[in-house]
Design brief:
The structure is a homodimer of 522-residue chains. Chain A has 522 residues and is an alpha/beta fold. Chain A folds into three domains: 184 residues, Rossmann fold; 190 residues, Glucose-6-phosphate isomerase like protein, domain 1 (Rossmann fold), CATH 3.40.50; 32 residues, no CATH class. Chain A has 18 helices and 15 strands. In chain A, the strands form four sheets. The first copy, chain A, has a six-stranded mixed β-sheet with strand order 1-2-15-12-10-11, with helices on both faces. A five-stranded parallel β-sheet of chain A has the order 6-5-7-8-9, with helices on both faces. In chain A, α2 runs antiparallel to α4, α6 runs parallel beside α10 and α13 packs parallel to α16. The first copy, chain A, starts with a helix and ends with a helix. Chains A and B meet through α3, α8, α9, α13 and β11 of A and α3, α8, α9, α13 and β11 of B.
């Protein structure tokens, strides 16, 4: 038995799962909606349509206590080494993305945490000066960020989400894939002479990024432009990219910030500040910081990321749902869907616990996401009438960003949007009986709703931190290490072997050879 | 017992599932790669890394025969009424999206099919004239398509996938969501005086689309422009939108084409032809048509959509995997991922069979998708080392679209891209033992690879038809109706009730009221 399954509250929760809370019943009343609400950082969290009751909720809080989830969050934010596997070679690092935004009130007191946040703040100051200079010189209208995974998803998501704050004549583009078409197409849309290029790779050796950087350098040279006047690096001190001779500016990141947790660093800060100004970036950091503090709250009911983590564990390990869907009712969060997916699936798609034992329970689920109402017209058929049940996390905002709207048939578009969000959540829970079996809705499909006033920089920062900490809390409770990603290594090794085949180098890789031969490529 | 489970081959396949084919074994050899290849329409399909052997494959073909899958495909393409549920009110329609492209050689002979393809071809001719006129007049540089679900996903995907064919000074934009920010942001990027607006709604009453159309009309009026000179409708004959007084042109669609199956009609043809010309559109139709013919092929091994459908059923019903991931290694297919998800989850996320009986087996799985290599850096950790197994469908192309590339470290970017595709498939199957449990890869995770020379209009058309027919074949074998979407209705009804609350109309909807009150919105 694994530690998670040995927690005192685990057995009790297994028993409670047999209760089978029925969301279609009369008991799912208006009173229940009001009872299961929590709030913090400008968000209101509704979970009255989850398959829980007070007893279950209290036992989930017990589970968090038994697993010392809050202590572990505190240790993380305090700079303890928590990215490790016992008794085996592992990253063996601190996990201090919270230090990236610990520059407001109530700063951490621990030496490691202070050092980290001082380092981070130094980069913020460097960035402010850099952006001031760029603004003053007025040379650049466009910025292309190259990077992949954590170096691009979050930054892309942030820029899309806050596009309403973008300055006139400032455009940002993101190129991630080693697919040459990705970059070529972007290059057609910019005037390179007016374009900054932010190249992001912690190691300074990421295949996709280095290749795309070389590609852009070639294009700059072709146009008689000096790459050094256009390129910015975001990388670790001492990496091959840490070289002021090659870059207009070098910003640092550190090994205590994992890729997917890095967008609040210069990884995301540089492009966002170029587009929207450093004030917007600072507001985003403030939102993230406040949610970091919220994640330490001992009043578990109003500790939003912890509460969300516990409901996720309830659905995954006790009700046995293998997937979750995340549906933000805001087009601005389209790319953020990918960021949430990464936070969760890269952090918790693991089979080994901290003691290097193969777990015998389910860890991170499949996470799929898309914005509403679009998703209603693609996969909601499955959510309502499929043979499997997928719990849903809805996200919404009371007000639109642009504050331009139309009243049509007595409601605004924003009201129609929210009507759909609430309507879907209620429909999934309550269902509807019909004599026509094909028009019958079994209901009893759980969901939660996270709602804020408006998608501001502050709200986005808080939302990013919320999903970071939700994943972290689940890892703490499952006893796994949510902060490494060893699972991506083997694919890289075999891709390298394939490249050797393409380059006609000696390589013992018969399966790879077979594919290339069958494709007529060898 | 349901029909599917009564098929003669079902029991045998249940037995065969116990074989537990081990992909990590030595038996997974180069010979096996060559043995399990099928091809058609310019695609090569590799399935040697699926958990099958010859016996299993033969029994899957038996399953298709037992279920009369090919006869049903033929009936569909011949215009029989197959969108129905026995003994209950249902759509009761033909399913003739194949008629939309039945304008090449070997046309269907059946009366219904001929009538349908004649109707479709009339619209194609109308479109050709219309585009000629637009080209001649040279007034329009931009096109905004408004629609949602089937009226936008496919068209958006087609235009992104074929962006390389786009004419200079022709831009297309897609607005779907009722979220007002979605449209407002798009309007900031166009000069309305040079913009065509294609409004797509079969019923002419789709909430999101009508609202956005009203919004655009208001903006046109503001700028002193006449909506009639800018708007095009794509709708059903007789719908509220079928009115030449309000539109520059009205194109027709019909009830024998479901929303998600409509992008090869004017729903997708208008925007694609505006951007890339009608030749590109016709090539796409030809690819789709050839794959339609392929779906009728009695040699099941080379009937690609049928083969893919059978492998999917093997994974879903016999190996019990609850989800699949689809990973095209081409940035141009980013939006197409959503289209594939819709084909599958909206078609087969059903619980009722054709005889209106609740099924007791699993139907359509969760489908999630993203392009490679990007997905490698987000959710591949889960695919390699998660506790659940998700089978994968890889898609790739030997050549890039723009044919601009860089050789870096002895390989081109396109070669790097393909190296990753093959490397991942092999890594997932074979795994790799390590003494460090955290660096251990259990492997034995199945996948298939669909490969073509290049993403051309023809290849895209074939790919669209492939996924349409894959979903249809699975529905035929499961005995469900893949062509309706009753599951989206209840959400609409409750959203309407919520709108009534917002509009302060009398409405008995206490749960909805509770949410709005708690949000301070009532």
């Amino acid at each position: 038995m694994d530690e998670f399954q040995n927690l005192k509250s685990y057995k009790k929760l297994q028993e409670l799962a047999k209760k089978n809370i029925d969301l279609t019943s009369e008991k799912i009343s208006t009173q229940r909606i009001s009872e299961f609400i929590s709030q913090n950082c400008g968000f209101k969290f509704f979970y009255g349509l989850e398959k829980i009751d007070k007893e279950i909720l209290n036992n989930l809080f017990e589970l968090a206590s038994d697993a010392k989830a809050l202590d572990k969050m505190d240790a993380m934010q305090g700079g303890e080494v928590i990215n490790y596997i016992e008794g085996h070679e592992s990253d063996n690092r601190m996990v201090l993305h919270t230090a990236l935004r610990d520059c407001f009130k109530d700063r951490r007191k621990e030496k490691n945490a202070i050092e980290a946040s001082n380092l981070a703040y130094k980069e913020i100051e460097k960035l402010k000066k850099f952006i001031d200079r760029i603004d003053r010189e007025g040379k650049f209208t466009d910025l292309i960020q190259i990077g992949i995974g954590g170096s691009i998803l979050g930054p892309h998501a942030m820029n899309q989400a806050l596009n309403v704050y973008r300055k006139k004549n400032r455009n940002v583009h993101f190129v991630s894939n080693v697919d040459p078409d990705d970059l070529v197409q972007t290059l057609r849309n910019v005037d390179l002479s007016k374009t900054l290029v932010v190249s992001v790779s912690k190691s300074g050796t990421t295949l996709e990024t280095i290749t795309n950087e070389e590609f852009i350098k070639k294009e700059l040279h072709k146009k008689g432009l000096d790459p050094k006047e256009h390129l910015i690096a975001v990388t670790a001190k001492g990496s091959p990219m840490d070289n002021n001779n090659n870059y207009l500016e070098v910003f640092y990141i550190w090994d205590f910030v994992g890729g997917r947790f890095s967008p609040t660093s210069m990884v995301g800060g540089a492009a966002l500040s170029f587009a929207c100004g450093t004030d917007v970036y600072m507001k985003l950091l403030e939102g993230a910081h406040d949610m970091d503090k919220n994640a330490l709250l001992k009043d578990m009911k109003n500790n939003l990321p912890l509460l969300a983590a516990l409901l996720g564990i309830w659905n995954r390990n006790f009700l046995k749902y293998p997937s979750i869907a995340i549906i933000p009712y805001s087009s601005a969060l389209f790319y953020f869907c990918y960021q949430i997916q990464q936070y969760d699936m890269e952090s918790n798609g693991k089979s080994i616990d901290r003691k290097a034992k193969r777990v015998t329970f389910e860890t991170g689920p499949v996470v799929f996401a898309n914005i509403g109402t679009d998703a209603q017209h693609s996969f909601f058929q499955f959510l309502h009438q499929g043979t499997d049940i997928t719990p849903i996390e809805f996200i919404g905002f009371k007000n639109s960003q642009y504050n331009e709207d139309i009243t049509f048939k007595e409601t605004t578009s924003q009201q129609k949007l929210l009507s759909n969000l609430f309507g879907q959540a209620i429909a999934l829970a309550k269902g509807k009986k019909s004599k026509n079996p094909n028009k019958n809705f079994e209901g009893n499909r759980p969901s939660s709703i996270l709602l804020a006033d408006k998608l501001t920089p502050y709200a986005l920062g808080a939302l990013m931190s919320y999903y970071e900490h939700k994943a972290a809390f689940q890892g703490f409770i499952w006893g796994i290490n949510s902060f490494d990603q060893e699972g991506v290594q083997l694919g890289k090794v075999l891709a390298d072997q394939m490249m050797n085949l393409f380059a006609h180098k000696k390589e013992n890789f018969p399966l790879g050879e077979a594919f290339l031969k069958e494709c007529g490529m060898l």
